[in-house]
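Sample log: HTH cro/C1-type domain-containing protein.
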Amino acid sequence: MESNLKNIRLENGAKIEEIAELLNISVDEYINKEDGVISLTNGEKKLLSEYYGTTKESFT
């Protein structure tokens, strides 16, 4: 089952590398966040909501 984070990224045509760079983390760390191994921080949720034009709640 794909995570909401991955679905939003795919719907917006963003690449893993772009989002990892936006969050200032490694690609491996971002993949772990998409897979639910590591949780997003509130700051990361804020950056992603601004990038995608959505709310932080989209990434819960």
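Observation: The chain has one domain: 4-55.
Observation: The CA atoms of residues 48 and 56 lie 8 Å apart.
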